[in-house]
Amino acid sequence: MNNLSDIATVKEILTRHGFRFSKSLGQNFLINPTVCPRMAEMGGAGSGVAALEVGPGIGVLTRELAARCDKVVTIELDKRLLPVLGETLGDFSNVTVVQGDVMKLDLAALFQREFAGRDVIVCANLPYYITSPVIMRFLEERLPIRSLTVMVQKEAAQRLCARPGERACGAVSAAVRYYAEPKVLFSVSRGSFMPAPHVDSAVIRLDIRQPGDYERPLSETEEKQLFRVVRAAFGQRRKTAVNSLSAGLSMDKANVIKAMEQAGLPPAARAEQLTLDDFMALSRALFAEG
User: Fold this and answer.
1) What average pLDDT does the segment 191-202 reach?
2) Which of 96, 39, 97, 108 minimizes the C-alpha distance to 71?
3) Are residues 184 and 279 in the same domain?
């Protein structure tokens, strides 16, 4: 197969298949030859590992994963890309292309059908418009994956990986940190794509937390309560957590202050100053029986 990072080659393949870019699908194909090998390696691709990809485009990252992993399943929404992928991935027998919307597919069934008993990583160059929904779906459904390594908009990477106290920290930061240990791996300039987007990107990896990582795993009800508290706390960022929680949870301010004190937190604290453990303690105090 010819070099899929060469602009002339890519244009020739796409023209031959009558393909035109769709802005609504956020299609920007990687042409920087150094990015995908780094993503695959740093994402954990290797012998004995299977990979799931979302949005393969013309298959640049897919080929890097297929060259390293035992099996690759890639999900593509745009039916027009199927014949393109048939050509660019034709020399790999360990790749399965699934046409569909990752937000609508039965992922649990897909994992059981394609990956039963395998060590699985997710590695993808995600379209910007579905970054957070896709990531949170993989995390919330507790799919049997070891890690997610994804390229996202740089600002999104900062939010997703932000630590307590950092300006970018928000509700999604706390939610991601509950399910995984996130970190930014490397930046990717906008010139690495065709067509070039208006923003730079970054590759992040989320290492999934295992049951033993939690001192006391939360029940399903406790998880829902925790995320109610997180969303409410960040609902009015300019206010203290007490005021945001009182408004967001429709709770008396005095009761919220009492819960903050029971959790060992200063009433003047703001949401971005609280750690995940703080939120868990606060949630228990707010929803304590009686």
Assistant:
1) 90
2) 96
3) no
Q: How many domains does the chain have?
A: 2
pLDDT by residue (tens digit) across 204-221? 999 999 866 766 778 889
**Longest Cα pair distance anywhere in the chain, in angstroms?**
69
Residue 261 is which amino acid? E
pLDDT digits (tens, 9 = 90+) for 133-173: 999 999 999 999 999 999 999 999 999 999 988 889 999 99
Nearest in space to 69 (alpha carbons), one of 141, 149, 4, 130 = 149
Sequence-distant (6+) residues with CB within 8 A of 211 are 217
Pick the last residue of a domain from 191, 213, 235: 213
- Kindly state whether residues 112 and 228 are assigned to the same domain: no
pLDDT, position 236:
87
Q: Which of 153, 186, 156, 182 is nearest to 168 (CA)?
A: 156
Please name the amino acid found at residue 240. Answer: T
Q: Looking at residue 31, which CATH number applies to its domain?
A: 3.40.50.150
pLDDT confidence of residue 129: 82
Q: How far apart are CA 61 and CA 75, in angstroms?
A: 13
CB hemisphere CA count around 25 (13 angstroms): 19
What is the domain extent for residue 20? 7-213
Specify whether 60 is located in the same domain as 193.
yes
Q: What is the structure's pLDDT at 215?
A: 65
Q: Which of 122, 123, 124, 128 is nearest to 200 (CA)?
A: 128
Q: Where a domain ends, among 158, 191, 213?
A: 213
Determine the average pLDDT of the residues in 31-53: 96
Q: CA angle at residue 62 from 21 to 151, to 5 degrees?
A: 70
Sheet of 49-54: strand order equals: 95-99, 71-76, 49-54, 119-125, 147-153, 201-208, 180-188
